[in-house]
Amino acid sequence: MTLSPGSRVGLAGAAVVGVAFGMARYAYGLTLPAIRQDLDLSELVLGLIASATFAGYLAGLLLARPLAARRGPRAPTTTGGACGAVGAVIVTVAQSPWLLAVGAVLAGSAGGWVWAPYSDIVTRTVSPRERPRALALITTGTSGGLVALGGLAVLAVLGSWRLVWGGLAVAAVAAAMVNLRLVPRTGPVPHPDGRGGPFSLARALTVPAAYSVVYFAVVVIYFTYAADVLARDLPTAAVPALYAAIGVTGGVGVATGSVAQRLGSLRIAALCLVTVAAALALLGLAGGSPAATAASACIFGVGYMTGSAVLAVWTAELVPDRAGAAFTGCLIVGAVGSVAAPALAGALIPGLGLGTLLVLTAAVSLLSGVALMLHGLSKPATTGQRRRGEGRR
Length: 393
Fold this sequence. Notes:
single chain, transmembrane, mainly alpha, Growth Hormone, Chain: A, 2 domains, MFS_trans_sf, 84% helix, MFS_Efflux_Transporters, MFS transporter, disordered C terminus, MFS_dom, 0% strand
């Protein structure tokens, strides 16, 4: 069977993003307890390495655009795949904190290199009708990565934490090969023509950028503290199960493109914030219940994956000629929220308690979702409605 260009690019992107975001991004936190025990590292050193991995992600985001401008948008995705594979191999064999840090930072940078360039690849190689579906498929690849990471974590329980990173290295190589095989090489990404410049881009992205700050902040709070909630009353195997459940239910994100064309990306984004709010509230109010925790993970998977997929679709709709730059801008703004949220949470938890913090975070997500929905209702037409109108002309 011959695949359409949208399916080829979508499958390749899903594989690469799945490894970079679903696996490499969370492997360090998942294996942290075992690393602490095996290498006898202090909390300070482990925390510094964790921060450094995020710095690697930001570096990848910032460097991907210049590389795409010189060598084409496929080049950063290849670079990200190589960083993921090499970094995972280094962590697998690391016996010192310095080697561990180098490998973890390299692997962590993979997500920054690969995600945004696919917006340019899709807009340059896929027909307008197929673009929303391809972008949603690429982003939802994270779900498959989370499921795979959960499976590797089970193997690690039976063997060593190094099996997780070894499996990650193999997956990164396989994804990079698929990417080179299915994604066509394109020319350099042209520089903007100067009409409005960055100020014009910023004006067009005001609403999705605001959404990005809240979305990434509440998501990172969930991922940061969900394991702590589970560790209170549930066995250690519950954490890999949590990741797997998020990945499985997050698979619905693949339909984000078609749903956004019907309802509008803004409204889908608002609903995602409300969904994540429900997951956070469940975790904060009833985290000691296995059933409530499982329900929270399943609800969160839907909101998390659809929320990231809609951002890719939304920015490509608003600025189709600079989709990669638009998506990168929103990711960088969202990264600020990701940095600030855990620091603020760490300052508030001693006085409020973890459960109260999660409920307050849920309230922020809920109110932001309602505000975004009201903003959408005030518009004469959603983006999806405008696109359908254009298609009839």
